[in-house]
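Our consortium's second objective concerns turning raw sequence data into structural hypotheses that experimental partners can test. To show how far this objective has progressed, the report includes one record in full. It was chosen at random from the queue rather than selected for favorable results. The single chain below, 157 residues long, was entered without modification.
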Amino acid sequence: MFNIPFKLRGGVALIAAAFALFLVTTGGAAALSIRLSLAELDAAADAVARGRVERIESYWTADGIIESNVYVRLSDAPRGALSAGAEIVVRARGGEVDGVTMRASEEAHFEIGEEVYLFLTGLENGARRVAAGSQGKYRVLGERAVNAEWGRSLLLA
């Protein structure tokens, strides 16, 4: 196999242990994504909404990770128990607190002012999540909603 110098073996072991801890704490599945069809994504969502990101509030959780509450003012709610004009809260892992930035690779990322088309799921403590992580968030660009990360585009009627 590989002949690792003795001085480096401790560092390699530390990295391997950290990676194993990551897999255990995330269930091993967080690093892997299965591409859902649009029909599967729609079925996984309780609601579908279009709106503008008004503000983002990030905070430390008790588990020591950063989460964000993303406040979205809805302009349309094609499906689910939502209505145009309402403000909803979307909770996402990642954000910035006190100069520390955390990004979760499988999670949808938001920017203040962007117009989004969202497939949403669940309602926990007044906040929803994006269905299927980053797969359920699209940026509205004119008459299209685009998810560049997953190479998808939807024509908005």
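The partners drew two points from this record. The chain is about 20% helix and 45% strand. The first strand starts at residue 47 and ends at 60. Both points have been shared with the crystallography group to help prioritize constructs.
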